[in-house]
Amino acid sequence: MALLDVTDLEIAVAAGGKLLPVVRGVSFAIEENETLGIVGESGCGKSLTSLAIMGLLEGSQVRITGGSIQFDGRELTTLSAEDRRAIMGDQMAMIFQEPMTSLNPVYRIGDQIVETLRQHRDMTKGQARDRAIELLDLVRIPEPTRRVDSFPHQMSGGQRQRVMIAMALACDPKLLIADEPTTALDVTVQKEVLDLMADLQTRTGTAIVLISHDLGVIAETCDKVAVMYRGKIAEAATTRELFSNMSHPYTRGLLNSIPVVDHDVEWLEAIPGRVPTIDEVLPGCAFHPRCPLAEDRCNAEDPAPRDVANGHAVRCHFAGGAA
Amino acid sequence: MLVYTIKRLLALIPTLLAASILVFLFIHLIPGDPASILLGDTATPEDVAALTREMGLDQPIWKQYLLWLSNVLQGDLGTSVFFREPVLSVIGDGAETSILLATMTMFWIVLFGIPIGILSATKHGTWVDQMTSGGAMLFASVPTFWLGLYLILIFSVGLGWFPSSGFPSVSDDGGLANLRYLILPSLTLAAPNAALIIRLVRASMLDVSREDHVRTARAKGLHPAKVAIKHVFRNALIAVAAAFGFTFAALVSEAVVTETVFSLPGIGRLVVQSILRRDYPVIQGVILVIVVLYMIINLLVDLAYARLDPRVSLK
């Protein structure tokens, strides 16, 4: 049984008395020690999926309307709020896109790590502080015994993201969800943070769900990839399989829009058109208005996922050659 | 922090000078002169002229000001024209009432303003929030004299729970029980200010609760009440602390009305009566005291601000 098993997840936004579906029939699984990348444009539902797994949708306009999230043998969608909180920050932790604003500005970083520890572990203040210093050392913050008393505004973005990682790892979570953890960072710092996460994974065996819009980041760090488009998984495979055999026109479009450094090109390829807004109802394949391969059939019939290779599923009528 | 405090206290001096000049000029713009008001309708012009000369009011205004200023610098605020007593002791008589009234008022503002504001923010959008926000709006809009009169009508005249006017000193018979004289006036004064604090606490908490670090706190698995107090309210408090400086200014002006409605022997009523009597030395003295207090309170607010927000550095 997988550590995290998401099946047919449906998420909707309540707006004007209606429920607008934003995530539809999303399924994936992840084992210990594995990294799953979820990639897609803004608004494709990747962040909402991660917030749903973490349990952070409560109190917002967004809710889970169907499907199941099994974590470590427990069904999360029916768990009480209290039981959910016992898992959050302990067995499951999350780091966010904006390191500059994700830490509370009025508390010292050490105290913020201590708070997580004391929430889930029976520790004295002194023990928790010692552990916080260890964690800061683990995420390679220089002079951790001194920095433990720093306030967030006294640190750089990269350092703050390391603190977020230290805080997330405080209770040795089985699953770490990272929502665009490097997007707001400089390229050199990005690489350091990604290396750090990979390194910590080898040590602790934590499973990681990495949300990104950057196929490059995904290629470098993930074992498996799910490409999301408009609330659905368009294509899912192991990273090696996906990059050697891209089958969905959207995935190919994403890859083509990455600049290649040693090619001198006048224009960068872009996917034509725009992402439809959530209240637009589209018959057929959600990608067909922007798809170079689209035919009449795509307009009428939503393709079901089909396997083009072992463990490589694609939602496209043309996948695997047969139309 | 110490250097900053000293700098700020030194900055008091030019502000006080400017304030005293303004007050001096404004008082002399008011028509009517103290000598004729003091002597009454039956006074002969000769008597009035004699008294005017005695009080030094026949001198040019800049001379009067310099004389007053040099006395103030020696710690002498002058003598009340009406009471024939040193201004300092006249102010001292009103100070007990005003200080106790202000303290009780602040107590109510904190007691009601902050918890109700937190409740309103955490129950945001529900009927609880609508009730408290509506109530706060009502109390913020009602004039203090009207509220004071209604409280007297209900709780003094109707129910007979509290006295309707006056305030014997706590050192007189009755001791601390005399504080009951101040309950209705302090509630009257507190109502509009507590209402503003409720709205401010609510608004800042809602602002803070949308910030990313609150999501981080929730992701730690903390109880929602702990997130609301330790993370949301703690950050909202920065804006609320700043508002207490303004609240003090509002209290000073509203105290004038409230002390009149409840016939309290406080400094607020003293100012009003002194203006009516053209008792120049008292008006100047009281306003000087209020300016000093106001600036000290604002200094305290700024110091608190630096304590509450580590990003603020005092230079």
Oligomer category = heterodimer
Averaged pLDDT of chain A: 86
The SS-based structural class of chain A is alpha/beta
Q: How many β-strands of chain B, per DSSP?
A: 0
Q: Provide the low-confidence segments of chain B as ranges.
A: none
In the CATH hierarchy, what is the class of chain B? Mainly Alpha
Encode the helix/strand succession of chain A as letters: EEEHEEHEHHHHEHEHEEHHHEE
Q: Overall pLDDT of chain B, averaged?
A: 84
Which fold does the CATH topology of the largest domain in chain A refer to?
A: Rossmann fold
Overall 3D shape of chain A? globular
- What is the rounded distance between the termini of chain B? 8 Å
Largest sheet of chain B: none
CATH architecture label of the largest domain in chain A: 3-Layer(aba) Sandwich
The class by helix and strand makeup of chain B works out as mainly alpha
Query: What number of domains of chain A?
Result: 2
C-alpha Rg of chain A, in Å? 21 Å
Query: Helix proportion of residues of chain A, in percent?
Result: 25-40%
N- to C-terminal separation of chain A?
A: 35 Å
- What is the H level of CATH, i.e. the homologous superfamily of the largest domain in chain A? P-loop containing nucleotide triphosphate hydrolases
Structural summary, described in words:
The complex is a heterodimer of chains A (323) and B (315). Chain A has helices spanning 46-54, 81-87, 109-120, 125-138, 144-147, 157-169, 187-204, 215-221, 239-244, 249-256, 296-300; strands spanning 4-15, 18-30, 35-39, 62-71, 74-75, 92-95, 175-179, 207-212, 224-229, 232-238, 306-309, 312-314. With 323 residues, chain A is α/β, with parallel strands linked by helices. Chain A has 2 domains: 4-91 and 171-314, Rossmann fold (3-Layer(aba) Sandwich); 92-170, no CATH class. In chain A, the strands form 2 sheets. In chain A, strands 6-7-8-3-9-10-12-11 form an 8-stranded mixed sheet, sandwiched between helices. In chain A, α7 (187-204) links the parallel β7 (175-179) and β8. Chain A is globular. Chain B is mostly helical and 315 residues long. Chain B has a single domain (87-308), classed as MetI-like fold (Orthogonal Bundle), CATH 1.10.3720. Helix content of chain B is 75%, strand content 0%. In chain B, α1 packs antiparallel against α12, α5 (87-122) packs parallel to α12 (280-308) and α6 (127-141) crosses α8. Chain B is globular and about 85 Å long. Chain B starts with a helix and ends in a 7-residue tail after the last helix. The model of chain B has no long low-confidence stretch (mean pLDDT 84).
